[in-house]
Amino acid sequence: MLAGLKNHPAVWEMRRLPLWQNLRYDEAARHSMKRETDFYRQLLEGLPRGAVLDVGANSGSKTEIFRSMSDFVVAIEPTPRLVHALKNRFQYCRNIKILDCAVSSTNGTSLLHVFEGDDSYNTLAPEWASALRVPHTNRFGLALTSPEKIRVQTRTLAELVQEYGPIKYVKIDAEGYEYEIVSSLETPVPLISLEFNLPEFAGALNRSIEKLHSLSGLYRFNAAVTEPPMKLELSNWVPAEEMREHVNQSGWHYAELFARLAPA
């Protein structure tokens, strides 16, 4: 009963009040939340008006940030219990739409690996799901229980960009499935980000850079190496080849790749 009350739409509205924030979080937590919000505000500043696609919205923490920085947010999430939570959280937010699906290279259906007790690792990538279950083969020390496999609807990023455009920013967090998502993109968007664990997905990161470069030679790249992101690692936004060199030589264990269109 208490859990249901905690996630009631009216309670979510109360949580957005400054008084609630001051009572709920200590100074360190509020400072961290402010730094993340400021990071995205600076990142999106100056972009053309449009919608944000939050691919892999999970519980909606980033959707919450994006809703004040864009005309419209499409929060895309395939995990049923998270979809239910998102609909409660944003029931009274008119500029947010919740899509109950995954994003993939094709329209259709696919198997989602759902980890009981830790939805942050849910993935369409079977190899990644298997690796996460064996503590000695992944550097996270995880030994997650065997995931439940559920069939979910998939849509392509190209289709979503066409349907909800103009788009100002696409955020992709899909636990090892990022390249498959971006591979369908047919037209460049002003800003896009994709998360990668390294070195496991270094190849997928490099393929994603190449894919975006093929869409537009005007893309310039940067990266954040913490989650949540607090700052960009490079002092300047760099071309595709230079970004690949940074990734291959950096020794980063994690990177959120950002690609931004430079003025023509």
Verbal overview:
This protein is α/β, with parallel strands linked by helices and 264 residues long. It has one domain: 3-Layer(aba) Sandwich (Rossmann fold), CATH 3.40.50. It is 37% helix and 23% strand. It contains 11 helices and 10 strands. It has a 7-stranded mixed beta sheet, sandwiched between helices. α10 packs antiparallel against α11. The termini are far apart.
Index terms:
single chain; about 260 residues; alpha/beta; Rossmann fold; three-stranded mixed beta sheet; 11 helices; 10 strands; about 35% helix; globular
Rg calculated over all Cα atoms:
18 Å
- By secondary-structure content and strand pairing, the structural class works out as alpha/beta
Shape: globular
Main-sheet strand order equals: 3-2-1-7-8-10-9
CATH topology: Rossmann fold
At a glance:
The protein has helices spanning 2-6, 9-15, 18-24, 27-44, 61-66, 80-89, 126-132, 157-164, 178-182, 202-215, 240-250; strands spanning 51-55, 72-76, 96-99, 102-104, 108-114, 148-156, 167-172, 191-197, 219-224, 254-261. It has 264 residues and is an alpha/beta fold.
Topology:
Blueprint: H1 2-6, H2 9-15, H3 18-24, H4 27-44, E1 51-55, H5 61-66, E2 72-76, H6 80-89, E3 96-99, E4 102-104, E5 108-114, H7 126-132, E6 148-156, H8 157-164, E7 167-172, H9 178-182, E8 191-197, H10 202-215, E9 219-224, H11 240-250, E10 254-261
Parallel strand pairs: 1-2, 1-7, 2-3, 4-6, 7-8
Antiparallel strand pairs: 5-6, 8-10, 9-10
